[in-house]
Amino acid sequence: MSSGVELVQYDAARRALEKATKIDEAKAIKDKVTALQTYARQRNDIEMEAWLSEIKIRAGIRIGKLSKELEKAYTGGRGKFGFPNVGKPKLQVLKAAGISKNAAYRYEMLAEIMKIMAINKSKLQTLTLFDLLGEGIKYEREG
């Protein structure tokens, strides 16, 4: 594939991820990229594999953002149970998309770390992994 074609396809995948409004849409893109990545690896196309890795990470971030927005089913005390105001409960949506609760949590943390990095662009030279993990723990407690 020529570099121009790869760039067009890369941009198309990026735009599709940005437009994804449901977890299953972002997951489908991630799954397609995983298959293409395997193909690129078999063909020893290192450049394409790197581009696909970036799209795969972007898909994970998008899944994390969408997952964080989902409402959980809740209990209101002894024997009381309720559903979200809109849509299905979070675990049901994740299960339908083929995403485990643990994977969704990791995607949410990845999305949060990327958000922190975007906010702290000027401090990125001094921002350490410990800082990012500390912010992630703070996010978990607040969320």
| Strand fraction | under 5%
Give the rounded overall mean pLDDT. 77
Largest sheet: 2 strands, antiparallel
Radius of gyration: 18 Å
- The low-confidence runs, each spanning 5 or more residues with pLDDT under 50, are 136-143
Provide the structure class: mainly alpha
Strand order of the largest sheet: 1-2
- For the record, the count of structural domains works out to 1
Which percent range fits the helix content?
over 70%
| N-to-C CA distance | 44 Å
Contiguous helical run count: 6
Label the overall shape.
globular
The total strand number stands at 2
Order of helices and strands: HHHEEHHH
Polypeptide structure, described:
There is one protein chain. By secondary structure, this protein is mainly α. It has one domain (3-142). 71% of the residues lie in helices and 3% in strands. It has six helices and two strands; from the N terminus they run H-H-H-E-E-H-H-H. It has helices at residues 3-19, 23-42, 46-69, 90-97, 101-119, 129-142; strands at residues 74-75, 81-82. It has a two-stranded antiparallel sheet. The longest helix is centred in the middle third of the chain and has 24 residues, at 46-69. The model is unreliable at 136-143 (pLDDT under 50).
Task: Set down the secondary structure blueprint.
Elements: H1 3-19, H2 23-42, H3 46-69, E1 74-75, E2 81-82, H4 90-97, H5 101-119, H6 129-142
Quick recap of the structure?
By secondary structure, the chain is mainly α.
